[in-house]
């Protein structure tokens, strides 16, 4: 009974937490941007335009801008060996529903379009990404991927990795249960893993477990127990690896490792452990949903698992997943969507894009997939046994046109093999499009203008209709004809199975279309694919086979030697425990692959999704894109959404909106006009200030005693000591510095209006934009991270201190803030640098290459700011706590946390948010000392050097960029201020 009460309290806490997250999203900027865009709609127009999900893109807009991040159920961060940080731009999220705005008891319908038999048994299903995406809603493993391609805890609340990297100890989450209500224990994992590897009927995806110790012995039937899986106690389990594979956690997140309820399985399978009959009954998983109905030929229906540790959607009580097959299945799914019977259509084909964008232009999501489409060349078949030919063919393809015109944006051009979804990995640059260089390479290989080339055939399978695919790949063939003079035939007549058989019979193809999906948070796919003994290389491409080395333009290309070196690099990278060293090794290996054009990457896949505006909180990621991420607490169906033609719901059919709704719409329109006027005033005010700053800096720079002309003459050797007046005057005239300052300023403004920041005086020939482009992003990144840390930490500490006024915690926070605020950032830098970087070596001393480099500079700047926000936050919260509305809220029976975070903090945010603009300015200019101390390659170097040499254009551009950044933050602050307090919109 106590356990059930605890679960109920936990779910109630999560429901309250959702409201707090809504407020934090608003203050974080995501919601404010959406609001600003809405305000800028035409004031005085008719009904509101239909609401679109964030990430929806107009046909010409390319990939979507994602606004908001509902997140996933809060999980305990792992210990050693935990998840890496994630890259941006690879995931899509529909906006979260506002608190109290969700339909209760809703059904979410999303058709499954497939050509395969649907099997939801995680241990016996085929290697299908769709089922991997779908199964995470029914079954769980110890860990899983989130939408940002990071490994995060699931049934393991944390884990530890041994120093040698061989042993992982997982601590099973307390309260994790199957849908039957039975507690999940260690025996369930060992039972499930042994079922996956049972030699009587081994799983089609068992190879994802091959790194565990004892894998071969168990799968061959030579051992009854799996040596690498050990139960420590009911809530602790160990996994022992054959080698310290650093990518193991990524494989552990895949569904062959998911657990099943052995009691349910044995009950329905009639003693046959390997049968999938049990999946036709329910319940049996440990995920957020359980099966209520399953007909492999018709439909899958899921209902919430009330025992799921992470809670379930407060809105959706059924997932209806019709199973559609055959050539008309995509159109059937689209018709269900058009008729309102389906709210989501996943991964619809390109052939339907025109119809979809015509009818639902605002409801299309484009998700960049963690995979790459490439051309592979067989080293054993002419002419591709010549590395110069392969490089020429790789450089003769315009990838931008291929991705955006031929594939209409459902490819993202790339020259590297590892997709951008892999965290903290920057792939090398491969072969860029250069038709002239490609011709030279082909001529050097002995085929000038394509003369003497043998017959070339591109082989690949069809993804939609043969005609469409043939035309797309004929475009590549036409590129080779146009840029190289090569005659190329395209053969896309074979299915995937036929391609595999033909590949075995022919020992590979001359030129082949290949696609790879990365399912790792490391670049380990390089090792999987390109090792010379890999099944994807040996007898297929064989880049390790002895082929003739070639020399071109003084560079020798020796594929066989590079292949041997590649094997050494990835073998070391696979077991390297330091993430940065591991990625460096993989990067060196990928450079060899791209250098030899083993594959020629063309583009990353982009998945098309169709989502109704009222569906909120769905997430797709680089590795979960065919079906949404786990559908949990933050997914809901919104109550009120404007109709497609913009008319609000309500009123009698054919009569338009009712009178109360018309009054409400008119009031809403007035508020929009007031907000628009407020925005225009703030923008004009900031532009006026920016003009003044630009003029003052321009004049002061030229009136300063530092003369760049003297510096140039002395550095060039044309002057030693005194400067020749004639030469001095000539250089000033050449630079235009002899003209009156107002004339120079007018010319400068003219250049600015064209986006031209000018050319450096000291570094002649270098554009100022190029100089600043190297350092400004780093400085802004440092300032933004420091501001975020001090805002969040300081505000939370101040709020908690106010809630516990005069307590030891309050005194500790206030006393600490006085001390911290009195210490300059320079001193904080020394305090942090000496013990943590010099003595302990936990963090690097200098640089900006990885998150480990960011920690000390960010904390050095943020330490003093946290103290300021703590004092501001405490004072603002104390002022609100004493207001009458707080006593009223308590009298209504609202809990203390709900009052504090749902009412008090919202009102207290007005003075706190007002301080963000000046704080950003102080933080940005405080970067100069910290950048120098920690060797951060920001703009400080260029600003200081320009001040010494009198490089006017760089000085002006530096101040201009800083001013724009600060004024932008101030403008956003003003807008947030107006959003939080409507009185300011009217008065301001």
Structure characterization notes:
- This protein has 988 residues and is an alpha+beta fold.
- It is 46% helix and 12% strand.
- The protein contains 31 helices and 24 strands.
- Strands 13, 14, 15, 16, 17, 18 and 21 form a 7-stranded mixed β-sheet that branches.
Could you tell me the radius of gyration in angstroms? 31 Å
For the terminal residues, how far apart are their CA atoms? 56 Å
Number of strand elements: 24
Largest sheet data = 7 strands, mixed
Find the structural class using helix and strand composition.
Answer: alpha+beta
- Counted by DSSP, the helix tally is 31
Give start-end ranges of low-pLDDT stretches.
Answer: 1-89, 641-657, 983-988
Q: Rough shape?
A: globular
Q: How large a portion of the residues is in β-strands, by DSSP E?
A: 5-15%
pLDDT averaged residue by residue: 76
Helix content: 40-55%
Quick recap:
The protein is an alpha+beta fold. It contains 31 helices and 24 strands. Helix 16 packs antiparallel against helix 17, helix 22 (768-803) runs antiparallel to helix 23 and helix 29 crosses helix 30 (952-980).
Secondary-structure topology with pairs:
Blueprint: H1 2-28, H2 30-39, E1 92-93, E2 106-109, E3 112-113, H3 129-135, E4 143-145, E5 151-153, E6 156-161, E7 167-172, H4 186-196, H5 215-219, E8 229-233, E9 236-240, H6 248-252, H7 262-268, E10 289-295, E11 299-304, E12 316-324, H8 329-338, E13 344-345, H9 353-359, E14 364-377, H10 387-395, H11 399-406, E15 411-413, H12 435-444, E16 456-461, H13 466-484, E17 488-494, H14 496-506, E18 511-517, H15 525-530, E19 550-552, E20 555-557, H16 559-575, H17 579-595, E21 599-611, E22 615-616, E23 619-620, E24 636-637, H18 659-703, H19 708-716, H20 725-735, H21 741-753, H22 768-803, H23 808-822, H24 825-839, H25 851-881, H26 884-891, H27 896-914, H28 916-934, H29 940-949, H30 952-980, H31 982-987
Parallel strand pairs: 2-12, 3-12, 16-17, 16-18
Antiparallel strand pairs: 1-23, 4-5, 6-7, 7-9, 8-9, 10-11, 11-12, 13-21, 14-18, 14-21, 15-21, 19-20, 22-24
């Amino acid at each position: 009974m106590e356990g059930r009460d605890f679960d109920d309290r936990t779910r109630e806490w999560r429901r309250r937490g959702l409201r707090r997250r809504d407020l934090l999203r608003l203050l974080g900027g995501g919601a404010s941007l959406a609001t600003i865009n809405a305000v800028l709609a035409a004031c005085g127009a008719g009904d509101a335009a239909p609401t679109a999900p964030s990430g929806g893109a107009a046909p010409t807009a390319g990939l979507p801008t994602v606004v908001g991040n509902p997140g996933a159920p809060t999980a305990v961060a792992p210990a050693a060996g935990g998840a890496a940080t994630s890259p941006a731009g690879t995931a899509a999220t529909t906006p979260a529903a506002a608190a109290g705005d969700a339909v209760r008891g809703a059904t979410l319908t999303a058709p499954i379009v497939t050509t395969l038999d649907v099997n939801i048994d995680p241990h016996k299903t085929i290697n299908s990404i769709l089922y991997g995406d779908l199964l995470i809603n029914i079954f769980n493993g110890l860990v899983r991927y989130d939408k940002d391609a990071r490994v995060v805890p699931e049934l393991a609340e944390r884990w530890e990795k041994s120093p040698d990297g061989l042993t992982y100890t997982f601590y099973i989450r307390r309260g994790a249960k199957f849908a039957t209500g039975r507690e999940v224990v260690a025996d369930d994992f060992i039972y499930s893993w042994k079922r996956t590897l049972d030699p009587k009927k081994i799983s089609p995806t068992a190879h994802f477990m091959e790194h565990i110790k004892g894998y071969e012995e168990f799968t061959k039937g030579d051992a009854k127990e799996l040596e690498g899986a050990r139960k420590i106690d009911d809530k602790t389990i160990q996994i022992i690896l054959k080698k310290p594979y650093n990518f193991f956690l990524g494989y552990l997140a895949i569904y062959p490792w998911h657990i099943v309820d052995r009691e349910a399985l044995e009950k329905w399978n009639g003693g046959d452990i390997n049968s999938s009959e049990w999946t036709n009954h329910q319940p049996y998983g440990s995920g957020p949903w359980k099966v209520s109905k399953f007909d492999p030929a018709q439909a899958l229906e899921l209902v919430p698992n009330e025992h799921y540790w992470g809670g379930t959607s407060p809105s959706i009580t059924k997932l209806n997943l019709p199973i559609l097959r055959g050539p008309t299945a995509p159109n059937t799914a689209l018709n269900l969507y058009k008729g309102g019977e389906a709210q989501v259509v996943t991964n619809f084909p390109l052939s339907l894009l025109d119809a979809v964008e015509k009818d639902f232009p605002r409801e299309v999501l484009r998700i960049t997939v963690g995979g790459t489409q490439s051309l592979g060349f067989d080293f054993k078949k002419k002419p591709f046994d010549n590395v110069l030919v392969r490089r020429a063919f790789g450089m003769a393809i315009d990838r931008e046109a291929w991705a955006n015109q031929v594939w209409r944006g459902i490819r993202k051009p790339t020259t590297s093999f590892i997709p951008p979804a892999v965290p903290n990995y920057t792939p090398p640059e491969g072969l860029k499009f250069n038709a002239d260089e490609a011709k030279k390479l082909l001529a050097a290989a002995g085929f000038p203008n394509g003369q003497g080339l043998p017959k070339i055939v591109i082989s690949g399978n069809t993804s939609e209709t043969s005609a469409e695919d043939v035309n797309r790949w004929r475009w590549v063939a036409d590129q080779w004809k146009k840029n190289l003079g090569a005659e190329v035939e395209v053969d896309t007549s074979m299915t995937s199975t036929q391609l595999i058989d033909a590949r075995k019979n022919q020992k590979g193809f001359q030129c082949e279309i290949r696609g790879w999906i990365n399912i790792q948070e490391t670049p380990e796919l390089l090792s999987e694919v390109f090792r010379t003994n890999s099944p994807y290389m040996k007898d297929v491409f064989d880049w390790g086979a002895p082929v003739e080395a070639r020399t071109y333009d003084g560079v020798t290309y020796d594929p066989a030697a590079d292949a041997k070196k590649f094997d050494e690099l990835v073998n070391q990278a696979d077991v390297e425990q330091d993430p940065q060293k591991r990625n460096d090794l993989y990067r060196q290996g990928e450079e060899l692959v791209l250098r030899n054009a083993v594959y020629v990457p063309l583009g990353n896949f982009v998945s098309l999704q169709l989502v109704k505006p009222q569906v909120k909180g769905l997430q797709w990621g680089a590795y979960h894109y065919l079906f949404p991420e786990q559908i949990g607490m933050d997914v809901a169906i919104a109550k009120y959404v404007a109709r497609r033609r913009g008319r609000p719901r309500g009123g009698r059919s054919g009569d338009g909106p009712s009178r109360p709704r018309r009054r409400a719409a008119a009031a809403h329109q007035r508020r929009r006009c007031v907000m628009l006027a407020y925005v225009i005033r703030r923008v004009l005010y900031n532009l006026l200030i920016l003009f003044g700053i630009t003029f003052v800096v321009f004049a002061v720079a030229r009136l300063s005693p530092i003369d760049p002309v003297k510096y140039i003459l002395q550095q060039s050797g044309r002057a030693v000591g005194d400067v020749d007046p004639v030469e001095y005057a000539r250089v000033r005239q050449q630079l235009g510095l002899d003209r009156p300052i107002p004339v120079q300023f007018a010319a400068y403004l003219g250049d600015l209006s064209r986006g031209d920041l000018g050319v450096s005086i000291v570094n002649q020939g270098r554009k100022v934009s190029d100089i600043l482009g190297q350092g400004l992003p780093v400085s802004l990144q440092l300032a933004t991270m420091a501001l975020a840390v001090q805002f969040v930490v300081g505000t939370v500490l101040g709020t908690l201190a106010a809630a516990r006024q005069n307590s030891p915690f309050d005194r500790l926070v206030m006393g600490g803030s006085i001390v911290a605020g009195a210490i300059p950032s320079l001193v904080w830098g020394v305090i942090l640098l000496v013990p943590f970087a010099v003595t302990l070596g936990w963090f690097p001393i200098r640089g900006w290459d990885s998150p480990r480099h960011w920690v000390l500079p960010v904390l050095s700047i943020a330490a003093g700011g946290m103290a300021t926000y703590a004092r501001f936050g405490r004072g603002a919260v104390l002022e609100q706590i004493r207001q009458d509305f707080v006593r009223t809220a308590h009298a209504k029976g609202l809990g203390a946390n709900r009052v504090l975070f749902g009412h008090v903090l919202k009102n207290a945010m007005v003075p706190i948010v007002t301080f963000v603009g000046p704080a950003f300015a102080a933080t940005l200019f405080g970067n100069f000392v910290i950048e120098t101390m920690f060797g951060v390659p920001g703009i400080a170097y260029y600003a200081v050097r320009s001040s010494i040499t009198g490089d006017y254009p760089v000085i002006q551009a530096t101040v201009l960029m800083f001013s724009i950044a600060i004024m932008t933050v101030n403008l956003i602050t003003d807008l947030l201020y107006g959003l939080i307090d409507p009185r300011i919109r009217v008065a301001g």
